[in-house]
Amino acid sequence: MKLEDAVKGRRSIRAFLPNPVPRETMTKILKLATWAPSWGNTQPWEIVVADGAKAQELARLFEEEGTRGTAPRPDIEMPVDFPEPFKNRYMKLGKDLLTYMGIEREDKAARKQHYINMYKFFGAPAVIYLIIDGGLNVPYSCLDVGSVGTTLCYAALQEGLGTIYLAASMHFPDIAKKVLSVPEHKKIVIGIAIGYPDLHNPASLFRSDRVPVEDILRYA
Ligand SMILES: Cc1cc2nc3c(=O)[nH]c(=O)nc-3n(C[C@H](O)[C@H](O)[C@H](O)COP(=O)(O)O)c2cc1C
User: Fold this and answer.
1) Which of 22, 52, 159, 173 lies in disulfide reach of 188, CB 3.0 to 4.6 Å?
2) Atom number in ligand 1 closest to CA 149
3) Does 64 map to a domain?
């Protein structure tokens, strides 16, 4: 696969087939991804894969929290609001996605179901958790985690797999740590759902747009 095809071909997948990802394939992807750059080559990431029964248990527990409307309590603080023009981009994504999926703005039940599906990893058979030690500097370690995370998305694409970064997967880190036997002092940065895309579902075909590069680029 050409690098340009990979960069342009990757998109967030929001509908997966239940077929499991063989652990051999998973390990191959993660082995490749760990060639990602990191600050001082510290490689601060720890990777814990929830697959099979563990992924199902997490999906069930998160669905319960989502249905109850429990407020997220992530280890790494999440943005609550965005200044413009970022807020507009955020709102546009939600609107474009729901429209593409045929969900009407007024259809509160369908919108809620979409958010519940998010807590169920959109049906993905596995979630890759990227974790850091509690003693690490958060902003810089998070840069490194983003580096390995995006690299693994491309490595997965090469294996015919789809991925999506899911903030929803780290809304309740205490639950994830208990299920995955992760010590309490570690911080869950993000989870990335992975699996074979359900290409019959529009949720796996949606493409987000980008602002023109001229809008964000300047040669000083
Ligand atoms: C840190 C991070 C967290 C994200 N969390 C979610 C999420 O909880 N739910 C979701 O549907 N998409 C989530 N996404 C996916 C973004 O919406 C997506 O990357 C963005 O819209 C660009 O689209 P693309 O990935 O298809 O190119 C997340 C992405 C990132 C980088």
Assistant:
1) 173
2) 31
3) yes
Number of domains in the chain: 1
Span 151-195, pLDDT tens digits = 999 999 999 999 999 999 999 999 999 999 999 999 999 999 999
**pTM for this predicted structure:** 0.98
User: Is 172 close to ligand 1, i.e. is its CB under 6 Å away?
Assistant: no
Where in the sequence is the domain holding 102, given as residue range(s)? 3-205
Residue 126, judged by CB atoms within 10 A of its CB (0-12, 13-18, 19+), counts as buried
Q: Which helix (H) or strand (E) holds 192?
A: strand 187-195
pLDDT in tens, 6-17: 999 999 999 999
Backbone angles phi, psi at 54, to 5 degrees: -65, -45
Q: What are the start-end ranges of the E strands in the chain?
A: 46-51, 126-132, 162-166, 187-195
In the block, tokens 């199902």 appear at 56
Query: What is the reported pLDDT for 155?
Result: 97
Query: Bridge-partner residues for 126, per DSSP?
Result: 51, 194
Measured in angstroms, how far is the CA atom of residue 166 from the centroid of ligand 1? 6
The answer to the question of residue 214 being in a domain is no
Question: Which pLDDT belongs to residue 98?
Answer: 96
